[in-house]
Amino acid sequence: MKVLVVGSGGREHALAWKLRQSPKVSEIFIAPGNGGTRLEGTNIPVKDNDLPGIVSFAKENKIDLVVAGPEVPLVLGLQNALVKEGIPCFGPNAFAANLEGSKAFSKMVMHDSGVPTAPFQVFDEYERACAFVEKKGAPIVIKADGLAAGKGVVVATTTEEALEALESMMVKRDFGSAGERVVVEEALKGEEASFLAFCSGEDYALLPSAQDHKAVGEGDTGPNTGGMGAYSPAPILPADKYEETADICIKPILKHLAAKGEPFVGILYAGLMYTENGPFVLEYNVRFGDPECQPLLMRLDCDLASIMMACIEGRLDEVEVKVTPETAICVVMSAEGYPGSYPKGMELTGFDKAEEDDKVKVFQAGTEYKDEKTLSSGGRVLGVTALGTDLADAKARAYRAVERIGFEKSYFRRDIGDKGLKK
Ligand code: AMP
Ligand code: GLY
């Protein structure tokens, strides 16, 4: 099989690394990839949102499977465009991808299918949204409807902050058309977990739970990032609760979409919050999380390409999604200053030393290979990932590996996994 992975982050490095282990996969291309994916296959100079470019490359090179890493191409209709050409795509069609592409759509689907989620209202008019916020008061959550690269959610602790968020989204248009419409919802309190499933219409196969660390600072302080680390399993969602949790947040969504004639194929990712009143869904993503993908794929103990093809061909019951009982953890090393402005071009060394421990894998994200050197080129640069007999063992291995990496002006959180260790 010839596989094309779309995207350029740590998630895509992990996808290419795992797909390369498949006995069925003969060749891997990554569009556009990074300094790490070039070690797993061939990077091609096609951007992840260049749908015509992706489709024509896939056609010309007789690609057997396209795997969409990020949400943007899916929301733009990558699956639809590929299917028209008879090319299999792992990822949902544009309609189903709206679960992530439009928060208003996602909340409506949750509401209609009985999924527990925070009470909400959708607004297209700024004045009405302001009046609602003033009536409700803080804390309150303001969400831009469309994709905003993870920056479109404001958990406001004061009414002023909420009104500012509305002005930024609806008047100043800081997120462009993504903020024309907003969702205003009740603020919930609790610990978060990520729960992902391989989906094929109404059939699904669950992955183990994971937990992301969105805030930049230790103790979950400071601004939100794309994710500073993740581990799996997350003790807040133990294995004996997976089935009942899927009944709450996976099954009803798949059923709803299938009934609409828009069956979901790909990864459905439920972002959960464990409140005093049980789990609530904060959001859905229609792809692997980054960095959750890295520890999840480290634990996956079976052929990823076979599972993806089974999802596409409606034969999920024929494959087994097997995972190791070990714990995996990913520590993200970023450039100093991220998620604000940060320097680029720092040389990265020590990967071999870090990987001397055979339970460690360094996934690359914002990196490029130039003049025989690996240089940083983005905010989140590396995802140092380790397996261990338990969370403490995995954590110790990951941080030992981090210390072996040479990376000036780097930053990483030292407390990845600590919420799980407390349990
Ligand atoms: P989302 O993109 O919807 O997952 O939101 C990003 C982050 O905002 C989540 O991971 C939560 O930390 C926070 N968040 C979203 N919705 C709520 C809510 N209703 N109450 C409290 N925090 C929220
Ligand atoms: N790690 C969260 C996300 O990928 O959306």
Explain what this protein looks like in three dimensions:
The chain has helices at residues 10-20, 51-60, 71-76, 78-84, 94-101, 103-112, 126-136, 159-171, 242-249, 251-259, 293-299, 304-312, 351-354, 391-403, 418-421, and strands at 2-7, 27-32, 42-43, 65-68, 89-90, 120-123, 140-144, 153-156, 182-186, 191-200, 203-206, 211-212, 215-217, 221-224, 229-232, 265-275, 278-285, 327-335, 348-349, 360-364, 367-370, 373-376, 380-388, 406-407, 410-411. The protein is of the alpha+beta class and 423 residues long. The chain has four domains: 2-95, Rossmann fold; 119-186, ATP-grasp fold, A domain (Dna Ligase, domain 1, 2-Layer Sandwich), CATH 3.30.1490.20; 191-318, D-amino Acid Aminotransferase, Chain A, domain 1 (2-Layer Sandwich); 327-422, Alpha-Beta Complex (Glycinamide Ribonucleotide Synthetase, Chain A, domain 4). The strands form seven sheets. Strands 12, 15, 18, 20, 23 and 25 form a six-stranded antiparallel beta sheet that branches. The structure holds adenosine monophosphate and glycine. Adenosine monophosphate binds next to β8 and β17.
Write the layout of secondary structure elements.
Elements: E1 2-7, H1 10-20, E2 27-32, E3 42-43, H2 51-60, E4 65-68, H3 71-76, H4 78-84, E5 89-90, H5 94-101, H6 103-112, E6 120-123, H7 126-136, E7 140-144, E8 153-156, H8 159-171, E9 182-186, E10 191-200, E11 203-206, E12 211-212, E13 215-217, E14 221-224, E15 229-232, H9 242-249, H10 251-259, E16 265-275, E17 278-285, H11 293-299, H12 304-312, E18 327-335, E19 348-349, H13 351-354, E20 360-364, E21 367-370, E22 373-376, E23 380-388, H14 391-403, E24 406-407, E25 410-411, H15 418-421
Parallel strand pairs: 1-2, 1-4, 2-3, 4-5
Antiparallel strand pairs: 6-9, 7-8, 7-9, 10-11, 10-16, 12-15, 13-14, 15-18, 16-17, 18-23, 18-25, 19-24, 20-23, 21-22
Helix pairs in contact: 1-11, 5-6, 7-8
The chain binds adenosine monophosphate and glycine.
The site of adenosine monophosphate has 12 residues, from strand 8 and strand 17.
